[in-house]
Amino acid sequence: MQPDLQANNAGAVVVHRPVTMTAGAVRHIKVYLDDHLVADLARGDSIRVPAGPGPHLLQARCTPLIPSSVPVILEPGEVLHARVCVTPLDELDIDFVED
Description:
The chain contains one helix and eight strands. It has about 100 residues and is mainly beta. The chain has a single domain, classed as Immunoglobulin-like. It has a four-stranded mixed beta sheet, with no helix packed on it. Strand 5 and strand 6 form a beta hairpin.
């Protein structure tokens, strides 16, 4: 029996939406990884999405705001921590934080 290589190399993207008091704070932010909806985050929510090594596209969408997209490349077993929010200028923002 061969080992499951995907499981051995699996990493993850952890996405957190901090609690903010901006005008758009009550809106939910939809998070996509490689064009698949993985979360609908309210303030204070987080999600851990398993992902294999290689290139991925992390997107945040929140109608009527302009979507935000960030390409990422995961190393085998890497866990990437991202933060999504609506800025005081009513824009979507994705940034990365240290573990």
